[in-house]
Amino acid sequence: MDYKYIEQLLERYWECQTTLEEEAILRTFFRQEDVPASLLPYRQLFIEEDEMAEEHLSKDFQNKMLRLVGEEVPVQVCKARKVTFMRRCRPFYRAAGLIAILLTIGNAAHQSFTDDDAVQEPQMAENIPIDSLHQITIGQPEQQSAELTSQPIDTLDVFPR
Amino acid sequence: MENISFRTTVLPLSDRLFRLALRITMNRAEAEDVVQDTLLKVWEHRNEWEQINNLEAFAIATCRNRALDIVKRAGRKTENLDEMAHFSSQTPHEQLEANEQISLVRRLVDELPEVQRTIMLLRDIEGKTYQEIAEMLDINETQVKVYLHRARTKIKEKLKNGL
User: Fold this and answer.
1) Average pLDDT in the A70-95 region?
2) How far apart are the C-alpha atoms of A133 and B48, rounded to whole Å?
């Protein structure tokens, strides 16, 4: 990146030949982190001048001065607002609603998990109808299945007794 | 003619006056007293506000004179804020730690002669034109530039040589 313009501005700054606008450009440039090494020694000057511009009086100083010259001190007015019983209970309704939603989701999740697990339960497996087990055994022994395919289809005993 | 009031025209100058007083007295409590005295003095002249050409310049000049009076009356030079800290009851170790944190540039600025420091503050921190500064300090623009040039050159040399 070419920093020639900034270098020229800086030279003019030392010579007091810069305008306030040009000095603002320099200030903005030096506020950034990425400053080339050749210009780095001067960065701190602009940074600390920014910090010095932030020095200010305590907050109550202005009120003290207004009192000293007999002017009215601005008072922050808080308007009282009427709050109905229903409005006051609104946080409880919200909390109750949230709990209800959480319970519903929790129940649903619990139920779906217990359904999946049920198939793997040994007791449940015993209750599976015997016919469907027969269907499963058809394709299992290769030798038996080869014998079956060689027979005419009408003589096939698909469900051995 | 714009409507001048203490609340809307004079009071907003407080922080600016405070920064100037602080750089001269090097003491926050004294600087606050100086601002209070300055604002009360401006208030005393409220019947002349319409005739005063530049109320801010008037306040700045009053503030500077008041701050210089305090420093002179206390019989001290306008030491920098960090030197003032050396008189505190810190242990040497605490002082060392504090010194490391002290802003080096601020120390350089505070070591400048008062008029150079004030001009640098008015130009670089308060963003005043050479003409405004000349009016505030009752000198001409060329003198303002000469003082500022000296101040900036000193700072530049110190920064260039690694402080």
Assistant:
1) 75
2) 111
Looking up residue B33, the CATH number of its domain turns out to be 1.10.1740
Does B54 contact chain A (CB < 8 Å)? Answer: no
Q: Would an 8 Å CB–CB cutoff place B33 in contact with chain A?
A: no
User: What is the residue range of A115's domain?
Assistant: 87-124
* Chosen domain end from B27, B55, B77: B77
**Could you tell me if B68 and B126 lie in one domain?**
no
| B residues 86..105 contacting A (CB < 8 A) | 103-105
pLDDT band at A114, cuts 50/70/90?
confident
Residues B5 and B73 in one domain: yes
Contacts A41 to B, Cβ<8 Å: 159-160, 162
Q: Say how many CA atoms lie within 13 Å of B58 toward its Cβ.
A: 18
In a domain, B103, yes or no: no
- Check: complex ipTM more than 0.85: no
> Which helix (H) or strand (E) element contains residue A152?
none
- Rounded to the nearest integer, the mean pLDDT of chain A is 78
- Higher-confidence residue of B71 and B95: namely B71
Domain membership of residue A80 (yes or no) is: no
What would the pLDDT profile of B20-31 be if each residue is shown by its tens digit? 999 999 999 999
Q: Do B7 and A66 touch (CB under 8 A)?
A: yes
Q: Tell me the nearest-neighbour CA distance from B153 into chain A, angstroms.
A: 6
Distance CA(A119)–CA(B125), nearest Å, equals 78
C-alpha to C-alpha distance for A49 and B109, rounded to whole angstroms = 10
